[in-house]
Amino acid sequence: MLPAPDVPEFAGTEPEAAARAVRQAWTVGERPIRNLVHLLEQHGVSVFSLAEQCREVDAFSVWRNGTPYVFLNTMKSPERSRLDAAHELGHLVLHRHAHAACSERASDDDEHVSSFHGREAEAEANRFASAFLMPRAALRATAPRMPTFDQLVQLKRTWRVSLAALAHRLHNIGTMNDWQYRNLCIEFSRKGYRTREPQGLEERETSQVLPKVFAELRKKGTRRHDVARALRVHLGELDELLFGLVIAGVDGPEAPATSPPRGHLRLV
Description:
It is a single chain. The chain is mainly alpha-helical. The protein has 3 domains: 15-133, Arc Repressor Mutant, subunit A; 143-190, no CATH class; 206-268, no CATH class. The chain has helices spanning 15-25, 36-42, 78-94, 96-105, 119-133, 136-142, 149-159, 163-172, 178-190, 210-219, 224-231, 235-242; strands spanning 46-49, 59-64, 67-72. The protein has a 3-stranded mixed sheet. Helix 1 (15-25) crosses helix 5 (119-133), helix 3 (78-94) crosses helix 5 (119-133) and helix 8 packs antiparallel against helix 9.
């Protein structure tokens, strides 16, 4: 039995206050979140990965029939994926009615469900993500006033975020002044840290739900190609939804499967 959706709604709430409220509702306090994908799944959010041809898309989210979905680009760095996941959680929490309106506009014959967010909504989701991953009081308590580079690296590993995201948050909450932040940004660019994370996370967050789902299906004699056929998608398309979120093959050796008849891909 999968967890029921448990994503609180805080439409119209200031993003930082909403982030605190969600942490409180999910009883995670102000400690660092070790695995955000697991936390989302524990509260009924269905998390999938995006296909390789979507590499230019960071992530997106949508409500469909009362279930929240998050799709992540797992070809980004682990730190970037965490921030993207928190950003999409922000949309689910702050902009649920926008998601629902978009979903209602999608008819049963549509091939996909899309969601649209204006600049203000995107900025709100960014603020939510930053506050959710790095709570103000806890970060202030652990960050020195004039952090050295080594201290910043250690701090980012504690909170499991990118160096750039950490510096931005420290500047935002007033722990780092404009001069410090500007110089750090210049240093990050000079050393290539905007594209190559120093001492990055060694492992990407993976799903704890998907392997269990397929294990249960396997016990009943249902394998991946059966699921793909039932959904009327190619096996490769199904694998792309799981890529990066499942550590190993969920079935083991896969029996050859004929291509299913093409159908409309919909969130179910």
